[in-house]
Amino acid sequence: MFPTALALALALAAGSPAPNQDPTPVPTPPPVIVPSGPVLALTADEAVQRALENNADLAVEKFTPEGADLNISDARSVYDPVVFSRVEKQSRTSKATNVFQGGATVDSDTLVYNFGASKAIQTGGAFRVDFNNNRASTNSLITTFNPTYNSSFNANFTQPLLRNRSIDQNRLNLKVTKRNKEITDLQFRSIVVSTLANVRKLYYDLIYAVENLSAQRKSLSLAQKFLNENQIKVNVGTLAPLDVVAAESEVATREEGVVIAENALAEAQDAIKRAILPRNDPEAWKTTIVATDRPTAQPVPVDADAAINTALEKRIDYQVLQKNMQNLEDQVSLAKQGRKPSLDLFANYGTVGAGGTQLRDLQSGNPLPTPLTGGYGDALSEVVGRDFPTWNVGVNFTYPIFNRVGKNAAARGELALEQYRSVIRRSELQIASEVRTASRSVETNFKRVATTQAARTLQQRRLDAEEKKFAAGMSTNFLVTQAQRDLALAEVSEIRAIADYNKSLVDFQRVQEAGLSGGNGLISVR
Question: What is the pTM of this model?
Fold first, then answer.
């Protein structure tokens, strides 16, 4: 018995086959898979920077603010000056109705050339000027001037004094459109913050996937080593061949764990590539991302109350709610205008002129011996000289007796405003809850790191003890494989806890600025 035991001890110590037995291969760790394609080593900050430059989702969303700028330009176009003109040639033939017209038919030709401009102003009023001209010629003998030139200039101004004086639909549209542009910028910023936070979390997931695969391979290596040692014992006759089956089964189970971990690593690689790649590039998909940072588990102080105050100041979704509230307040202000009577100031000034070739005396109406030649310049001179001015100033007043429509619109606006105040209060509760949850997650995950580290240390000691006891014949295959499995689980749990702790720190910062929803689904009042 002694020589056999001595041979077994030497074999276990030296890793060589027992005397007079077939050689048994020395256990070797699983081969490390070397990437066949290019390798890209990145820190977490470098991954974030690449996402900021290349992320496909950000590339899609960045066009939205540009569209909002165009909407503002559309709203401002209401106040752009408008010029208009009309040029028209008219011809008319009518039956003569008196003997003085000089024939059976009267032919009249008129050339119209009118010009004007108008402009709305941001007080709710409007300006308009018209410069109208026409040239008329006829074969009628009773016409004093032939051809006749007529010109007129009119300037008109209107300004509401009660209803729509402080705000009207045009001013509301411009204010709301500008504010919606600010909302769009905030939402894009929220998407940027959330995307970059997700990239950091994907980076930690990649680190976890790499470390998990390493732990699974280490566990497989231990199982293979234990299997080889059992085979040595069978060869020297100290262990029944049937006991090797349990070790072989454990090796197969650990191999499955390695396969699953390899697939998880591939998934983590694809996830972070999608976040930092600008387009579908076959060569880029072949690149292996290597995370050069290693997450630590340093304690970070967490003040939930201070974080809630910070979130209420900086949370983008809360700022969007506040701007929506301002939009709604402006809409209610316009609705309240409907309760006021309409009192509009109007003012008009005009001047006219006429000219042409004079055929008859203006006082007697008798034909002139020699026609006085004239033209368009005569009419224009009278307009410019304001020889025949007209003007009027006044107010228009309108008020429906019961005004149910205006009163009901204002009441509906007040109800909507009060409802939205409730939405904001609900949002404040939700923000406080999210921040408190995120802060507890940081504290919980830090405690997980400490407990999993202690568990991994104890499981390592337990495995060492079981292996020594098994070598002395005081333990079993089952207890050793169980200790190996428990150590692998403890190592994976520690890696997962460290990754989750760092991810919870990312979420704790993110929840104070953008929220965990990424800025999607935010209500916009238009």
Answer: 0.76
